[in-house]
Amino acid sequence: MRYIDNGIGDPLIEPLFPWLKDSLTEDVIGIRWQSGYFEAGILGLFESTLKRLAQEERDTIILIGSNEGETLAAAVHKLVDALELPRQNALLGVVSFSGGIYHPKTVHLQYHNDREAAYVGSANMTARGINGLNVEAGIILDTEDGDPVELLGKISRVTYEWFDGQSEGLFRVDSHDDVDQLQQEGILANKRLPRQRRSEYDNAKRGLLPRRTKRHALPFMEENNEVEREDPPVSRETQAAPRDDVLIAQLPGPGRWGQAAFPQWFIENFFKVLPGTGEVIQLFSVTLADGVGEAEELTCGYKQGSKNWYFELGLAAEIGDYPARPHKPIGVFHRIGHQRCRYTILLPDNESYTTVCDFLTQNRDRLKRPRNELPRTIVPATEFRKAWPNNWFFGG
Questions:
Q1: Mean pLDDT per segment of 10 residues, for the chain of length 396 residues?
Q2: Does residue 86 have a cis peptide bond before it, meaning omega lies within 30 degrees of 0?
Q3: Which residues contact 133 (CB under 8 A, 6 or more apart)?
Q4: What is the pTM of this model?
Q5: What structural domains does the chain harbor?
């Protein structure tokens, strides 16, 4: 038995992430977890294990909460795909109550050699719960360390017993249709709730409270955590495969930075949107804490009195007000498909800001844009990866 607590000791060893990474080996023949809160951004860590268990038709039992209807339906759709539901030895349940919340956090692993291991603690199956940003504590149990088989068996068994047909608050999910039904009933959410209160608190306490920075970058899923959808129709007769490019752009300062404003040249040549057609740009925000977010579908348009095209950045709204500083935020947009991009926003206090800002300064003249424009450059993704090694934006 081992106690882990990432509020003390080595912040790279004590979070749940290292134990999960080391424990999800090819010897795992069963996995069961309970989590009060769930985000699809953690699935990259489990992807290969869940895929193999599905191929081998092994035991996979997962319970997640949707407390006050906060869990995203899109995230549960991704979990349905990861489990390859419906199948015989996989169970997925969403738990939701009125007047109380579902709050356990357990992970149980079973191995070929009769070994069992488990985590019981405070960490949810969310990026912040796993990667060390939140302060979490728990107990690791392992039969190889002499921990009681009976205790580990109970951790495994109670997860299964939720599906005995008598558990109040349990909504079993066997298909995408079940997820859609739960969304219609308000048990699952169709979009992320605004974080206005948290942003106001963070801004009010900026500089007064310590800021946690030691954490792990979680791996992305092979599917890029994108919401599956058909490409919007385009007016071009043919559409060549988009180049794997990155746009690095300084954003406007306080008061306007939530709107990405670009001259029409960038809209047509990078985002590949034709003027006057109503075409949509699909953006996926990426953060170190939460991984890849849900899709933002945006239509570009002119702001009154401006010759720039603009669109609202959802991530800016989550971050909140940007205080006046001598340096402006930087937006990084990675084109991953036709009219599809991942993006992130780096504020001056971000540990990666200086690296990206220096790269932008060195490469801003590539496009031969007017010097009175905000600094911007477009470079191949492979080149930018080299300039920003071991970054979390590309998934490690």
A1: 89 89 96 95 91 96 93 91 95 90 96 96 93 92 96 96 88 94 89 51 51 59 40 36 80 69 82 72 86 81 67 77 73 87 88 92 87 88 89 76
A2: yes
A3: 127, 212, 215, 289
A4: 0.59
A5: 2-190 (3.30.870.10), 245-387 (2.40.330.30)
